[in-house]
Structures
1.
Amino acid sequence: MKNIIFHIDVNSAFLSWEAVYRLAHKGGKQDLREIPSAVGGDMAMRHGIILAKSGPAKKYGIKTGETILEAKRKCPNLVLVPPNYGLYEKCSTAFMNILREYSDIVEQYSIDEAFVDMTASCHLFGEPVEVAEQIKNHIREKLGFTVNIGVSCNKLLAKMASDFRKPDMVHTLYPEEIQEKMWPLPVSDLFFVGRATTKKLFDMGIKTIGELATADPAWLRSILKKHGEVIWGFANGIDVSPVLEKPPANKGYGNSTTTPYDVTDMETADKVFLALAETVGNRIREEGVKIEVVSVGIKYSDLSYVSHQKVLQTSTDITWEIYQAACSLFLELWNHKPIRHLGIHTSRIKNDDFFRQTSFFDEIDYEKMEKMDKTVDALRKRFGMDSVMRAAFIKQPIDHMSGGISREKRTVDYDRVTID
């Protein structure tokens, strides 16, 4: 093969990592992977969905993304464990470090999966399938959890192969194997084909990947636009994207949060936006960039969603400026119905080499605000995120650094958790 690409995917990552941690460090006797179990959010905080499930739980029809109530109806004895993103990040780092022992070109695709370009290094360890087995066994023996590895000549086929029978397996999907191994699969299994596209393809009479691959690409493009051409290429195993050791630059930064109770007043919404602006602004400054567009999103209690955006007069990384823009947009957008979810998103990224044009009429000392933000960032990085807090959040139920991975998901107090 011209290229040798692996896709490595951790089996039921969050649940596996929790299971291994309990067995190895908390005196656990029961392996969560061997019983109907799942990682689920906090229903009291309205994050009550299934984040990961075990193989036995899957047999009950439990699905990732469904509510805990739905899962419990299917399996009343389902064992639920809280999410622990601090643990997941450590496990992910250890996982990626092992992959880098085999190649210096590793693209972390998500917290629990990666592409590895083995083209230049595979010969040092053996034949492709043999090396994949080595990596799989190395991870299981050293870290205690299992992975699936797909082997092929490009990223798409390697990813498709890793999704074949699980767990703890190595599969190949070479171009000459596409018709036998991939074409009989339902079209919904193809990368980049979501629910909406699946429905459109079904309406067109296309139900398998093979039927998509042999369809007229011009016909597909006429109905599905550019997306039709892309998925036709995927169905035929065409993918020229390289494995990227460094991720591409962000096209935007954002954060959102589901509030623990419905927001029905402007004052509360303002505090949520200020908390979101804190985390978004921090990320923008960490990357050394500025943004020119701010947008807000509102999800109402009936789950309907609206959004609105504005272009700023000048690019910025100042928390207060992002917050003010968000509040202005919110006033234009809100219809006074109860809100369960708010978000701030930014785009049109600029390098942080822009000098703001000052004016005699400016009421705000922007240079002073920039210095203040950077000082606060440094203090929080050194002493913790709670070391500096705006007075508006003192004795308030709203977290002063909202969005992203919520506080209750970052750690678990195992003294309050029953471990069998």
2.
Amino acid sequence: MSQMKKIPMRKCVGCQEMKGKKEMIRILKTEQEGIILDATGRKNGRGAYICRSGECLEKAIKNRGVERSLKMSIPQEVYDSLKKEIEKIESE
């Protein structure tokens, strides 16, 4: 009897859909580095998950999903750098 491995699910702060953790990008708030993208999903800090699309990031900015998840206000420069990072990921 083999057991099915459980896939961890997370909710996107943009589109509000539940997806597998590995399909999403983690936006992380750390004390040392500030707000960064965590590609590995293993760094310490408070995280918010978002789909690998620019549309979901736009929705998250509009509905303030990232700010709510990280429990802080986020400056526009951080959103600009997140947009650039997601554009790189989309082009891969």
